[in-house]
Q: What sequence folds into this?
């Protein structure tokens, strides 16, 4: 029993240290504006808007990036990316997906409409360039990003982390079709978007350690009829926050992709 008590104490201390470290990292990020929008089916969606200071912005405002987490996690997963986006001259809107931070059940097909609700909110903000928006998404949020961006001409580019199970025969994907309602349908929609010539410029980052994600990225690359780039990195699959902190050069690649495609950004 004494040994177990020691382990518990050590775990508590480690947890406290990690919490302090995360808080210190987050301390550089300005306090966000809590945002609520109403989805097409009446659900109240919740997001957090990290705005650039109005002072010094050009009259037309600045571009903005919508951040969509995956089928697990929350808006806080994007905190390592918020400050670099702000430093690069982008507003950032990190949102909670339906069925997770924004109530009701998860419905990934309905959530495509939620993306448009958030895009419309961004366009209405006084210091946001309404025709200069991008979307970054992870896992099922990556599917939402690709599909949502293709539906809105104001969206100039997509960054997608591990949009899995696109025509993949990997066992985990076949199991996922049964476990996650709408996964097969939305992955087929993603394939159709990438295959069209009107697809937005898309950058995909994916770990080589997950066969389903790797297969999907290779499938999308083969299907692509427009600008498409993929980066396969080594390392186990973990949270998007951990990947952003641990993968050397990943944040720089994201910012460079956005800068290369944002109208008026050099």
A:
């Amino acid at each position: 029993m004494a040994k177990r008590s020691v382990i518990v104490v050590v775990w508590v201390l480690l947890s406290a240290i990690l919490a302090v470290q995360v808080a210190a990292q987050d301390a550089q990020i300005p306090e966000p504006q809590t945002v609520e929008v109403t989805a097409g089916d009446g659900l109240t969606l919740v997001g957090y808007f990290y705005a650039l200071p109005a002072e010094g912005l050009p009259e037309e405002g600045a571009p903005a990036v919508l951040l969509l987490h995956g089928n697990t996690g929350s808006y806080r997963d994007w905190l390592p990316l918020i400050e670099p986006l702000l430093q690069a001259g982008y507003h950032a809107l990190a949102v909670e997906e339906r069925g997770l931070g924004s109530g009701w059940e998860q419905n990934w097909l309905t959530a495509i409409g939620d993306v448009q609700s958030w895009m419309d909110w961004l366009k209405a903000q006084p210091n946001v360039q309404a025709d200069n928006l991008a979307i970054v998404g992870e896992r099922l949020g990556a599917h939402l990003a690709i599909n949502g961006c293709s539906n809105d001409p104001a969206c100039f580019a997509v960054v997608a982390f591990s949009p899995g199970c696109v025509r993949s025969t990997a066992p985990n994907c076949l199991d996922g079709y049964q476990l996650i309602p709408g996964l097969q349908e939305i992955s087929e929609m993603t394939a159709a978007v990438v295959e069209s010539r009107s697809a937005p410029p898309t950058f995909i980052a994916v770990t080589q350690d997950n066969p389903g994600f790797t297969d999907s990225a290779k499938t999308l690359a083969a299907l692509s009829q427009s600008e498409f780039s993929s980066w396969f990195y080594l390392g186990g699959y973990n949270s998007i926050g951990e990947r952003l902190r641990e993968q050397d050069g990943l944040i720089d690649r994201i910012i460079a992709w956005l800068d290369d495609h944002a109208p008026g950004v050099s």
Summary: Residues 32-261 form a domain with the Rossmann fold fold (CATH 3.40.50.1820). The longest strand covers residues 128-138.
